[in-house]
Design a protein that fits this description.
alpha+beta, Beta-lactamase, Lipocalin, 2 domains, 8-stranded antiparallel beta barrel, 6-stranded antiparallel beta sheet, 6 helices, 17% helix, globular
């Protein structure tokens, strides 16, 4: 059942949640992108070249929960250990969580839509983890074995980082601080946003790339990365699509 009147959405934030969809709709959309640019009834919509163009000439890579080789229009290109690209896009709204990806070389697609409070755990497992990719497409994320680094190796990444988020509704700008410090060969990540304080840990698995750890110190599927500035020093930290600027 769709009740648009129950979905207040100012036009200014339509890019973040202005489209109401369903799993059935999204799988039709996946079938279109796995095809030749024609609709289900044979009507030409986009040329095969236009479909390919949406997935090429990528912007910068890094991480968006998973490792990415770049961003197209508007697909994240999810890197895999086998070198087969996965094209995906996900999003969240208060109470709503989604994940969507397709693999042209495997003729496979998956969508996850949930309004459960535990929904992020499901999307994390299926969208950022690689169980579904391994099970149905024979692919997996690049390996991420946590390393234990020395205090000297961790020192270039320590410090305060700041991002400004706009939460809607209501449209309120919030400062989110990250205090990163060395702890037992890993980085402790203290998140401070208003009255909320959260301590979590991250471990490096390759230069400038970290994997987030759970409360028991075990790796989660989620990855993040540091970005050097022009002088080679670490200037930013990228996590969940948010860029935190190092202060000082």
């Amino acid at each position: 059942m769709v009740a648009p009147a129950l979905w207040p959405m100012p036009r200014t934030v339509h890019p973040t949640g202005g489209l109401i969809s369903s799993a059935r709709d999204q799988l039709r959309y996946a079938r279109f992108h796995l095809g030749d640019g024609r609709a289900a009834d044979g009507t030409p919509v986009l040329s095969p070249a236009a479909l390919r163009a949406m997935r090429t000439d990528l912007g910068p890579g890094g991480t968006l929960g998973v490792e990415i080789d770049g961003v197209g229009v508007s697909w994240w290109v999810h890197r895999t250990a086998e070198g087969v690209p996965v094209f995906q896009h996900g999003g969240d709204w208060p109470g709503q969580h989604s994940g969507f990806f397709f693999v042209p070389e495997r003729d496979f697609a998956l969508t996850v839509l949930t309004n459960s409070t535990s929904g992020p755990a499901l999307t994390g497992e299926l969208f950022y983890g690689d169980w579904a990719l391994r099970q149905f497409a024979g692919l997996q994320n690049p390996p991420a074995v946590p390393r234990v680094l020395t205090a000297a190796q961790l020192a270039p990444y320590e410090g305060l980082y700041l991002a400004r988020d706009v939460w809607t509704p209501p449209a309120v700008s919030t400062e989110v601080w990250l205090e990163l410090s060395a702890a037992d060969g890993q980085l402790r990540r203290r998140l401070i946003a208003g009255d909320v304080t959260e301590d979590l840990y991250m471990a490096f698995y390759r230069d400038n790339y970290v994997i987030l750890l759970d409360d028991d110190g075990q790796p989660t599927p989620t990855r993040a990365n540091f970005v050097p500035g022009p002088d080679g020093r670490i200037a930013w930290f990228s996590m969940f699509g948010r860029l935190y600027t190092r202060q000082g």
